[in-house]
Amino acid sequence: MKLSSVILSSSAFLAGGASAWGGFGHITVAYVASNFVSNSTASYFQTLLRNDTSDYLANVATWADSIRYTKWGRWTGPLHYIDAKDSPPDSCGIIYERDCKPEGCVVSAIQNYTSRLLDQSLHVVERAQAAKFVIHFVGDIHQPLHTEDVEKGGNGISVFFDEKRFNLHHVWDSSIAEKIVTHKKQGVGRRPFPAAKKWADALAEEIREGQYKANSSDWVKGLELKEASEIALQWAIEGNEHVCTVVLPEGPEAIRDQELGGAYFEAAAPIVELQIAKAGYRLAAWLDLIVSGIEKNETISPPTLPKRPDVVTAEQKPMMLGDL
Ligand code: ADE
Ligand code: ZN
Ligand code: ZN
């Protein structure tokens, strides 16, 4: 094996913990969305993604994480999150100008790839890629630690979950969701798709007739393509509020090296379910809007990224000997 491939494969392995919602959460979000999109939205994306099965959204939901750690995909890393420089648990909140990096963030990415999906002058391959990014990033923006700067979204906080050591970010991406479905005697195991579909169908029923019925119309109130960046920012702010209340209710030091599989899990599980349900329901509404927008030839502008004179961007940076 060449040295470069050793480095690539080991970094891909280490990166596993940073994959948003784990694969399982993203696949569940996609299946929730498939329950609610209109028939014309389903056919549009089945054609664009060249998949006429009912798994057309679920099958591409983790693509953005799979390219993030490749040489080509490195630039997409910052697009998976927005690092709110707030101070949980005393104060939570996101300020786009302060927290979105000049190279982009999950809020600008949702606007950018929505704008590219609407742009019929782009090649079909580019529009299919834009669809895969939108499907993934609507999931990411609902993971509370993807809207938090502290310890790189919890990646630097080591904890225990059911006696195994993980970082807090991984617990919120994967462990809590996997334990929820295991409790429901489904298990994820080696076949995440059937388990995710079953969980998604249960969440869809909660949205239609159960615990989320009263609020679900508020989740998608006032959605407008032209407001993509404001809407994505609202989604991010909502998820970020959970950082102060359930993710770090007493700050990072109170949970460092602690066991989170007990009382912490009990408090976190309803929030993970809520955020996955919201993400899926909103994704369906957003994809419906995009397809109606395409039918009406609507377009939206790409995002304006915050520019900060104090930040030296890659183009301005003089090359260092160490870069060679
Ligand atoms: N890297 C830096 N901050 C991050 C976050 N909030 N989520 C995921 N990856 C990150
Ligand atoms: Zn993550
Ligand atoms: Zn991601």
From TrEMBL:
GO terms for biological process: DNA catabolic process. Keywords: Disulfide bond, Endonuclease, Glycoprotein, Hydrolase, Metal-binding, Nuclease. It comes from the Eukaryota. Pfam families: S1-P1_nuclease. Belongs to the nuclease type I family. GO terms for molecular function: endonuclease activity; hydrolase activity, acting on ester bonds; metal ion binding; nucleic acid binding. The keyword Disulfide bond applies. This is Nuclease S1. CDD domains: S1-P1_nuclease. Gene3D superfamilies: P1 Nuclease.
